[in-house]
Structure formats: structure tokens, C-alpha cells
């Protein structure tokens, strides 16, 4: 039997699965809207929350983001939690992802430089989340992403602002593809699957798919062949298990059940099983949300339920 004295050392060195939270909700009431997230941070101190801050498809222009007192208050409050790591959002596509890596270099680096102004104004930003990242090598994307990661690791203003030449770097291609050239750039994480249970809109959704995975969209119905099946059958055959620790999986439509014939419904119990399946496969980060990253209190996958299930799975 292991001596108890060793446990804290093991806990500190064992690779845990972090929570990667795309926080696409406005911090109304001077950040009060985000208090459920703060409560989850407090309730799960061993869990690292990587929180993607996104005022307006990026840091926001004048009057937005850090210039907006509500954003400043909300992000300051989040950043004050020792287990929070705030990451700024940028994106590479001018046409909502149809073409990747076509945001002009002066424009994407200006957004990163603007994120680099936040720490001096009281909000510790620790890295950058690059959305609409490439899934293949078209459009000179490998060079574009290499240039971006090099910029993040060497630009003097950015290094000074983030306090390190190793900022947290996350790519979000949103699906599998020819990703190995991007893993070779050694970002902290690549989101290789971003999907839902894929069912019709929730009641009251007004006919829109409020979790953004319409049944006609060809999305992977998350784990419809059993716990871990989306990783084993879709993600790993493409990205390789050796990349698991640098891989993130996001499920942003956890409601109803995962398909017409499914025997698995979205409940807190199933949430725990699916999250354990992610952790057992040594995935670097994950998040489950009921409907679309804009509200964090809706069950079954409220922020509290998702965070405590992930903390428990990491400890198991
Ligand atoms: C990457 O940077 C190199 C060196 O500055 C430059 O020549 C090249 O055009 C850049 N490529 C892309 C796709 O941004
Ligand atoms: C549903 O049941 C079938 C047959 O027992 C099983 O193979 C499958 O893994 C189950 N699906 C889920 C999502 O658990």
C-alpha cells in the first residue's frame, strides 16, 4: 500500500484533464452573470479552468472588452481564482471558417497585441485561443500557424505582458483532419472534436439550434456507440493516442438523448460516465455544456455539474 505522504506528490505530477471553458456569455451585472463559474472554481480547487475570454470575436474594439467596466470587473474576478487561467480569443478566418488562415497578419497580430494590453490593466491573460484553426494544410496554413506560435513565443510585448515565452496556446480546428503538422508546433491543446448529442432544438429554442449542431449538419453524435466511442472511433484514428494530452474535446449540446435509437439520455449520471471516459483516455482538456456556451446554469450539464464530475474523474 502506498504511503499517504506520497499522495500529494503524485497528485501534483499526474496529468489531469483540465476544464476548457469557452465563455461566450456577457458578464452582465459587473460580472455577476459569471458567479456560477466562480462558484465552480471555488468548489473544485484542484481543477484547472482554462477560460476563453471573447468580447467580440476577439478582444473587442474601443469601448469593448477591457474598456467595458463590466468586462473588466468580470474578468478580474475570474482571474483572481488561483485555479483560473484566462485565454484570449482570436480567429483565423474572414468567412466563418470556410477559408482558414486568411485573416491578414497585421490584423490577427493586432488582436494579440490588444490582448497583451490586458495584464497592465489588471487582468492576467495567460495565452491565446486561436479559433477557426486549420484542419488541413491548404492555404499555406502550416506556415501561418507556425508564424503565429512563433509570434506568441517571441514578440517582446506579448512575452512581457503574459510574463512568459511559453504562453498557453490552443488551436480550435473544431474537428479531426490532417492535424499532425499542427501538433508538431506543440500548442498546449488542439480541439479535435467539438460537437453535441445532435438532437432537435430544445423546447423554446424558437426553431433555432441553440447548441449549434443541427441534425442535418453531419456532426458526430457524441458517444452514440458507447462511452468513449467518439474518441476511440473518430478522434484517435485520426490524431493518434500519442497526442491525447494535447487534445481537447468539447460537447456543447448535452441534452435529450444522443440519437433516434440511443439508450443514453443526457442526465447528470451519464455526464459523469462520459467525462470519466474522456479522463481515462488521458485527454488534455474537456468541457460539457447543456446548450451552447452562452448559459452555464442549465442542467444537466451546468458548470457546477460538469466541473465536479471532471474533478471527481481526475481524482478517480
Ligand atoms: C511566415 O513568416 C515568414 C517569415 O516572416 C514569411 O515569409 C511568410 O510569408 C509567413 N507566412 C505566412 C503564411 O504567414
Ligand atoms: C446501447 O446498447 C447497445 C446494445 O446493448 C450497446 O452496444 C451500446 O453501446 C449502447 N449505447 C450506448 C450509448 O451506451
From TrEMBL:
Pfam families: Spherulin4. InterPro entries: Spherulin4 (IPR021986). Residues 1-16 form the signal peptide. Transmembrane segments: none annotated. Keywords: Signal. This is Spherulation-specific family 4. The lineage of its organism: Eukaryota, Fungi, Dikarya, Ascomycota, Pezizomycotina.
Amino acid at each position: 500500500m502506498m504511503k499517504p505522504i506520497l499522495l500529494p506528490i503524485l497528485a501534483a505530477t499526474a496529468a489531469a484533464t483540465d476544464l476548457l471553458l469557452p465563455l461566450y456569455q456577457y458578464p452582465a451585472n459587473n460580472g455577476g452573470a459569471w458567479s456560477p463559474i466562480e462558484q465552480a472554481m471555488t468548489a473544485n480547487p484542484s481543477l484547472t479552468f482554462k477560460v476563453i475570454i471573447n468580447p467580440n470575436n476577439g478582444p473587442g474594439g474601443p469601448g469593448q472588452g477591457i474598456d467595458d467596466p463590466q468586462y473588466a470587473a468580470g474578468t478580474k474576478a475570474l482571474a483572481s481564482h488561483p485555479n483560473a487561467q484566462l485565454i484570449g480569443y482570436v480567429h483565423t478566418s474572414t468567412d466563418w471558417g470556410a477559408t482558414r488562415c486568411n485573416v491578414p497578419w497585421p490584423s490577427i497580430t493586432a488582436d494579440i497585441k490588444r490582448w497583451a494590453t490586458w495584464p497592465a490593466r489588471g487582468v492576467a491573460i495567460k495565452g491565446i485561443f486561436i479559433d477557426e484553426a486549420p484542419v488541413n494544410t491548404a492555404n499555406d496554413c502550416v506556415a501561418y500557424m507556425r508564424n503565429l506560435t512563433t509570434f506568441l513565443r517571441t514578440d517582446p510585448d506579448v512575452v512581457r505582458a503574459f510574463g512568459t515565452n511559453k504562453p498557453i496556446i490552443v488551436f480550435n480546428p473544431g474537428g479531426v483532419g490532417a492535424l499532425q503538422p499542427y501538433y508538431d508546433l506543440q500548442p498546449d491543446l488542439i480541439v479535435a472534436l467539438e460537437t453535441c448529442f445532435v438532437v432537435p432544438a430544445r423546447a423554446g429554442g424558437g426553431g433555432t439550434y441553440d447548441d449549434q449542431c443541427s441534425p442535418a449538419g453531419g456532426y458526430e453524435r457524441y458517444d452514440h456507440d458507447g462511452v468513449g466511442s467518439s474518441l476511440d472511433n473518430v478522434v484517435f484514428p485520426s490524431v493518434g493516442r500519442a497526442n491525447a494530452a494535447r487534445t481537447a474535446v468539447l460537447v456543447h449540446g448535452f441534452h435529450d438523448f444522443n440519437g433516434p435509437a440511443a439508450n443514453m439520455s443526457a442526465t447528470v449520471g451519464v455526464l459523469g460516465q462520459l467525462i470519466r471516459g474522456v479522463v481515462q483516455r488521458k485527454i488534455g482538456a474537456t468541457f460539457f455544456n447543456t446548450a451552447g456556451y452562452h448559459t452555464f446554469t442549465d442542467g444537466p450539464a451546468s458548470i457546477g455539474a460538469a466541473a465536479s464530475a471532471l474533478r471527481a474523474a481526475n481524482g478517480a
